Amino acid sequence: MNEMLYQDQPVVAPEVLEALAQKTDVNRLLAALSDLDADELRRMLRALDRSRAPVQPPPINSDLYEIEAELSPDEREIVLRWRSFLRAEVAPIANTYWERGEFPMQIIPKLGALVMETIGKGQTHYPRMSPLLAGMLTCEVARVDPSLCSFLGVHRRLCMTSIWLFGSQAQKDRWLPAMLRFEKIGSWVLSEPLVGSGAARGLLTTARRDGDTWVLNGQKKWSGNATFADVNCIWAKNLETGQVNGFLVERGTPGYHVEKIHDKISKRIVQNVVITLEDCRVPEANRLPGAQSFDDVARQLTNARADVAWEALGIARGAYEHALAYALQREQFGRKIAAFQVQQINLARMLGNVTAMQGMLVQLARLMERNGGQIAPEQASLAKAWCTERMRETVAIARAMLGGNGILLEHNVARLFADAESVYSYEGSFEINSLIVGKAITGYSAFV
Ligand SMILES: Cc1cc2nc3c(=O)[nH]c(=O)nc-3n(C[C@H](O)[C@H](O)[C@H](O)COP(=O)(O)OP(=O)(O)OC[C@H]3O[C@@H](n4cnc5c(N)ncnc54)[C@H](O)[C@@H]3O)c2cc1C
Q1: Each residue's pLDDT tens digit, 172-187
Q2: pLDDT band at 8, cuts 50/70/90?
Q3: Is 205:239 a contact under the CB 8 Å cutoff?
Q4: What pLDDT is recorded for position 4?
Q5: Domains delineated in the chain
Q6: Which residues are CB-contacts of 380 (< 8 A; sequence separation ≥ 6)?
Q7: Gap from CA of 45 to ligand 1 centroid (Å)
Q8: Above pLDDT 90, what percent of the chain?
Q9: Is there an atom of ligand 1 within 6 Å of 196 CB?
């Protein structure tokens, strides 16, 4: 026994003992403590110290493996430009426009200016950039607003790319410079009310040659941007050859009718439509001469699918970041919910998904770069199917982590959660992309 301790000063100050006595039976407490061995006591003291010290959480970082360092300094500069634009111009309005189901038209000229200062700089027809930068920008946009990502995807990735790949020089000169500056907007029209996944096997929309014109008939469904697009790239079955051809149909063409789809629970900012073509006549000069069959469309879709995988990554990153920010400020049982083991496991699972997706997509971008911009269908499809599945798991965890607030737009996760559903199904559903992989690795087609 240390007698000095008792003689010179009390072990515990009287006021501390008194405060303790008001809360608990001090004798019982001391008896319980005296039963603990030295290690147990040390552990308990450490835990008490930790819970008292204010925790300074580190900055939220969804790029744990420093994937952004793979970009060149100039490319990184561009990503940062887009990031600050999205934070300033898009994040503050996204929930409002999503709720209204409207597209923020005022953003279009601003996007045009941003493109011309970054990826369109020095270009006249088409933004040139490395596959890695293209993917990172898609991810960056989706992280803030997946609907804007769809708008850009349909305008550039689908419509501009079709004109760039399959258009005549006259078509390229007429549309691409204005589309690059966002003075003209494009839509891309393949899916139909009765034909979605099976588009390769037979579109019902037909194109009949009549002298110097083509007569289009049929119905299309979904095409984003089409309520206000200036040019619509419409795919139809050539009645003479039985092959799929592409046609540029301008807004206001007689026989071209557009009706907005209103009752969506996902991507509500994207203006999706049903298009009815009734003896809609377009000149031969509006047919895309470079597209001879569905194989050409499929080649374009391969790269588009890789881009949608980057979109899935962006949505997962956004959901992770919002969920972590929420967990760091929300308290239950007197503690931040971020301090609970279960929530930390959830966060680690989300970050694991994000990081694995990043790794896969960076390698896909490298493959694309190495192979002159093209990848194999199964390479794109595996990324699209797997990343959208991981995205879906990630947004579901994030939504649950916010409890009831997870279904409210104001906390941002609800919008990402809902928008993820479209991404899972479009540009080839999860099942269709998995079957493309399945066929490539077994040799058997399981489509029918
Ligand atoms: C928000 C949004 C935006 C879109 N934007 C555009 C656009 O801009 N332009 C455009 O052309 N299209 C667009 N689409 C359409 C999109 O590409 C289609 O929805 C998608 O291809 C799936 O087609 P579907 O909806 O007709 O489903 P279906 O083809 O009817 O499929 C229904 C279900 O059956 C499954 N299935 C189908 N065939 C098979 C099979 N052989 N084996 C196993 N399962 C199968 C599918 O995986 C799916 O689960 C958009 C869709 C959405 C939701």
Answers
A1: 999 999 999 999 999 9
A2: low
A3: no
A4: 43
A5: 67-184 (1.10.540.10), 187-286 (2.40.110.10), 294-442 (1.20.140.10)
A6: 302, 303, 305, 306, 309, 364
A7: 59
A8: 87
A9: yes
CA–CA distance, 185 with 131 (Å, rounded to integer): 23
Kindly give, in sequence order, each residue whose CB lies less than 8 Å from that of residue 240, ignoring residues fewer than 6 positions away. 208, 209
**Least reliable range by pLDDT among 20-24, 69-73, 114-118, 265-269:** 20-24
Any ligand 1 atom below 6 A from CB of 270: yes
Q: For residue 5, what pLDDT is reported?
A: 42
DSSP H or E run through 95:
helix 91-100
Q: How many CA atoms lie within 13 A of 206 on its CB side?
A: 10
Q: Find how far residue 49's CA is from the centre of its chain.
A: 42
Q: Is residue 424 lining ligand 1, measured as CB closer than 6 Å?
A: no
pLDDT of residue 6: 45
Of the candidates 386, 377, 390, 367, the one whose C-alpha atom is nearest the C-alpha of residue 441 is 377
CA of 424 to the centre of ligand 1 (A): 10
Q: Best of 152, 189, 191, 301 to mutate for ligand 1, by most ligand atoms within 8 A of CB?
A: 191
Output the residue whose Cα is nearest ligand 1's atom 7: 223
CB 399 within 8 A of CB 414: yes
